[in-house]
Design brief:
Chain lengths: 459, 459
């Protein structure tokens, strides 16, 4: 790192807000994709002015800048591949204004999802996005990836639950977009353009999140089916009536077999697929609503549906699903976890074809995920130290992506592109669309300072 | 219109798809803002290729192109102010694919909102956006303005209910964006960027709309209050619990007084504000849900809440609201109807300040609208033939917009900008944001062919 560059950084940030020691910087080069690149330095802004000044200096010195929340992303989108500096939003973690009367909250990007939920819950509210990493991941990261989670099936993703943003563009301009209201149509929708752009256009410095009233009651249902086809029919049936569950998760046969072999979870012997369903609402109506969902779950090939009404019963029902992750970690600690998405009715075709791909490439594949959105977590159980297996996995992944697109789907439902899927993007997006996106990038970030080498493929 | 230009149009379109006669073109120069400009010609594409070819020819001849659905917009966004040609999507009105299993429908832009609802209803589904003009307005128009309607309070606007688009940019490139799934995070969100851009960036040729299950039951509630403050407290209270109504409309004191004077609708004499509430859901739970809403409606200053359970009872409750529009038409046939939006808790402050503005500018103002979204239809009852009154109205409007922004709101919740609000946009958007939007416009439409002179102010 050049001395003049460092000197300028030191002018704007206190000493403790700059890391330059290689060993201290090391961990900031990782994310949950396990990819790594060593950053030149790590900076910790605490104000919007800091962010603007850092971007300005990076532009002056042509140094790449990689925004980082808490590194829970799975695609390498925060890894500083270009030898640039990492801008960590860890210290920009204030809740600026809780506006319970208008169901909204203004936060800095470094606040964790959990902190938002805790603050909102005090006022009987919640923010819909609930990625698995909610306890650790930052709101800025959630917005950068448009992360969701199980609740998206009823409440939508970040795009449907964010009212407005403040951000600094790659050119160093502070912008404000969106509203503090639940409707607004003045000017182009820059808010959603930034959400999901993976720190590629502008760095978010403040977000106005749309909150929803916290349901006062929740029921958990567990439904088992003879086959994935039957379970998928049940998903369609459940989604075709007026009571929408707040989670509609599934596990395929391979996932169930794994849980059977490695845990003591109770499962019908003939179960070839399982749905975990959560229904939320008002205490006075929840009983009837979960009965309606139970009825909708009973399609041909259905084995049984249990409704849990107490926390203990719900805990017992979740055991099978909860046993899965430790099982997967035991068997394949470095599995590849993709998150393709297909229209709900194509889930059986996807799962059947994945079984065939598993055989063709001789790779064990376990599927589970957000059935209500058709968002399937496809887990390739591989050993990354086995080069042959990794080569086969690469070919297999290629086929998995082709398959998702053939089935009218998309490469990613919530994990995003980052580095992991960057080379596959041309399968989904045409040349014209990619060119347009590059030109938009150019408008926001003319020197390509922000997160270069990610999200969009080279032109 | 130059002969070579017309000749080229005639090459690609059949004779009946081009109007050049001034009297035939006349009506296509209007929209519901009552503004008018005479188009050079009107063209009626039936295919995406037509749209692309028309845009290409317009680029070659530097002729402006104004997209038009059914002309129900209220801001002049389709008026061909620059002496260009109007591209009417009336004949591009096919439902391409109804996918009931995946709750989506692919349509051409000229399909009316009603046609979508009718097709979806056959499969027990509906599309959430429901502008008042639903029977006539086109989906293309809905998307161009991000139109909503009462149901937005529960189900969101076009942005939350559109999965993907096909479009032709102002540069003549066909693009496809979004997905056929309810989640998707590959590339920038061009879908929402186009929605609400008022035919300014690209012309939509196909839309994949997200459908929702049609509720099987609906209850209507009518609640009256001593004051607007009390009604607004009730709105906050209703929105703070877990049962969200599918409509939460209000009328202020002036609106009620008008109905009292000009119709026989029954109203408590001491009512200073009224809420019309609709609750939808499942037949088995609706009774309890409307009781929950009724309970939430009973704040201090509440007079009474009636629940209608039959169609006839609902019809009776709606009478007051339905009497309003004919009253307004009788008193001020050419009223100015604005649609500012403020955070819900600021509704009383807005209404009180509007009363003061009414006195200051000596203009009668009547307010009603979508209280659940804070989206207030502010009606200035003016006579457009009275120049002094129109001058006062202009000053008053200026103050209304300042007021909405002071109250943390926006100039428009659903009508959009078009011509009507173009000169006021700099109140809400900063120079940096407007410049960025112009640059984005430049990326999509380098020759500024599409809808010039609208939506964004001059730089």
């Amino acid at each position: 790192m050049s001395k003049p560059f460092l000197k300028q950084l030191q002018k704007i940030l206190p000493t403790e807000s700059i890391l330059t020691d290689a060993s201290e910087c090391l961990t900031y080069g990782y994310d949950n994709s396990r990819r790594h690149a060593q950053p030149l330095a790590v900076v910790f802004p605490t104000t919007e002015e800091h962010v603007q000044q850092i971007i300005t200096i990076c532009n002056q010195h042509n140094i790449s800048l990689y925004a980082r929340g808490r590194g829970t992303g799975t695609t390498g989108a925060t890894v500083p591949v270009n030898g640039g500096i990492v801008i960590s939003f860890e210290h920009m973690n204030k809740i600026i204004h809780m506006d319970e009367k208008n169901r909204s909250i203004d936060v800095q990007p470094g606040v964790t999802n959990l902190e938002v939920q805790q603050c909102a819950a005090k006022h009987g509210l919640f923010w819909a996005p609930d990625p698995t990493s909610a306890a650790f991941c930052s709101v800025g990261g959630n917005l950068a990836y448009n992360s969701a989670g199980p609740r998206a099936v009823k409440y939508g993703t970040c795009r449907e639950n964010t009212l407005g943003l403040r951000a600094v563009t790659g050119n160093g301009d502070i912008i404000q977009c969106g509203t503090h209201t639940t409707k607004g149509v003045v000017g182009y929708d820059l808010t959603r353009l930034l959400i999901g752009s993976e720190g590629n256009l502008a760095l978010i410095t403040q977000a106005t999140l749309k909150l929803l009233p916290l349901p006062t009651a929740k029921h958990t249902l567990k439904a088992s089916y003879q086959s994935m086809d039957a379970a998928a029919r049940a998903v369609s049936n459940i989604m075709a009536q007026a009571v929408t569950p707040c989670a509609l998760e599934f596990m395929d046969k391979n996932a169930l077999d794994m849980v059977r072999s490695y845990s003591s979870s109770e499962l019908p012997t003939n179960a070839g697929a399982m749905l975990m369903i959560e229904v939320d609402g008002h205490a006075d109506t929840i009983q009837r609503e979960s009965e309606i969902i139970k009825l909708a779950s009973q399609v041909e090939g259905h084995i049984q549906t249990d409704i849990a009404q107490t926390k203990e019963e719900a805990h017992a029902l979740w055991q099978t699903r909860k046993a899965l992750s430790p099982c997967l970690r035991k068997i394949a600690p470095k599995k590849i976890n993709e998150d393709v998405v297909v229209p709900v009715s194509n889930i059986p075709a996807l799962i059947n074809a994945l079984d065939r791909l598993s055989q063709t490439h001789d790779i064990k594949i376990v599927n589970f995920g957000h059935a209500g959105n058709g968002n399937i977590h496809v887990n390739l159980l591989v050993n990354p130290d086995d080069k042959n297996e990794m080569k086969a996995a690469e070919n297999c992944l290629n086929d998995v992506f082709d398959l998702a697109l053939e089935l009218n789907g998309s490469l990613s439902g919530e994990h995003g592109v980052g580095l992991e899927k960057r080379n596959f993007i041309t399968k989904e997006l045409g040349k014209t669309e990619i060119k347009l996106m590059h030109q938009i990038k150019q408008v926001f970030d003319k020197n390509n300072i922000l997160n270069p080498g990610k999200t969009l493929p080279e032109m």
